[in-house]
Predict the structure of Elongator complex protein 6.
Amino acid sequence: AGCKVCFVALLQSFSHYNVVAQKLGVNLTAARERGQLVFLEGLRSCLDLLFGEEEEQSGEPSPLQFISKSASDLKALFGFVRTALTPPGSGSWKGPVLLVDDLGVLLSLGATPVAVLDFIHYCRATVCSQLKGNIVVLVHSNEDSEDEENELVVNSLCHHSDLILWVEGLATGFCKDVHGEV
């Protein structure tokens, strides 16, 4: 839709999302080459960071540097998002969009719920309020979950969201044509 997009993909690789997008008629590779899409491949960044290759390659700190530091704040990740979506001078793109898949991965990597909620708060202040854009976040939730940190993040996001889409499998079990319900 002509929007500048920052995609923080913590769950899958770029090639996975590119294949899915092609099935929907969207070419992520072309969007990235045009500068419309800034893609953070979290899986690769984590490995590069753990093996000490990322900072050597780019000369800049990793957006996921909290993994190897004692502090669990997500300032570097927010800085990456802000830089990716702030238009340089005359912005040729429509409102920016931040996509995060899957926010719960940050908790699994050692970020605290407060750090994750602070990250989302600052992203909302910058992307939604200042730049007049949108944020789309995927987070998993389960009524029977014993993961209190994840449920704290989910509940807080529910209170601050304009639109919530709950997607779940069918209660009756597997069906050939329908996989779940919204």
